[in-house]
Amino acid sequence: MTKKIKMTTPEEKITQLGLSLPSAPKPVGLYQPVVVSGKLAFLSGQLSKAADGKLLTGKVGKDLSLAEGQSAARLAALNALSIMKDLIGFEKIRRVVKMTGFVQTAPDFYEIPAVLNKASELFAEVMGEQGAHARSAVGMSSLPLNAAVEIEFILELK
């Protein structure tokens, strides 16, 4: 008799990690938080905003340390996960295809991938193989509302 292995859902993994997702952020402009086209879902950029609404702001390498930038990336990832859960449903997601990350940096800061690794690691922890993705890491001189990090995602749906 074969033993059936129960897979941990993203919601269960979030609880196991001691995390709580914020409410899905509401758009602050004339755009949709997620647009579905065929089997792809495109998530609008999510900022480094905590559950209490406080934005983690500043330039990494000037106003913020690498560790603070990594915390900002994790906050943005939590906001993206909340949109996936509330507006799509984890059960409808086949995989994360691509993450594009933007980090507001000092001109001489070059550890942009290290900042965004924290967002990628969170997706791997929460979604396992489904969370593994292609990624672009881009340094910016400024971001909306002075946010430290903004990330966007492309998802494949079932």
Overview of this protein structure:
- The protein is α+β, with helices and mostly antiparallel strands.
- Helix content is 29%, strand content 25%.
- It is built from three helices and five strands; from the N terminus they run H-E-E-H-E-H-E-E.
- It has helices spanning 10-16, 66-88, 112-127; strands at 34-37, 40-47, 93-104, 134-140, 149-157.
- The protein has a five-stranded mixed sheet with strand order 1-2-5-3-4.
- Helix 2 runs parallel beside helix 3 (112-127).
- The mean pLDDT is 94.
What is the distance, rounded to the nearest whole angstrom, between the alpha carbons of the first and last residues? 30 Å
Please compute the radius of gyration using only Cα atoms: 16 Å
Low-confidence stretches: none
| Quantity of strands, as a count | 5
State the share of residues found in helices, binned by percent: 25-40%
Strand numbers in spatial order across the main sheet: 1-2-5-3-4
Q: In DSSP terms, counting alpha (H) and pi (I) runs of 4 or more, how many helices? A: 3
SSE run:
HEEHEHEE
Overall geometric form: globular
Q: Please summarize the sheet with the most strands.
A: 5 strands, mixed
Strand content: 25-35%
Residue-averaged pLDDT: 94
Structural class, from secondary structure content? alpha+beta
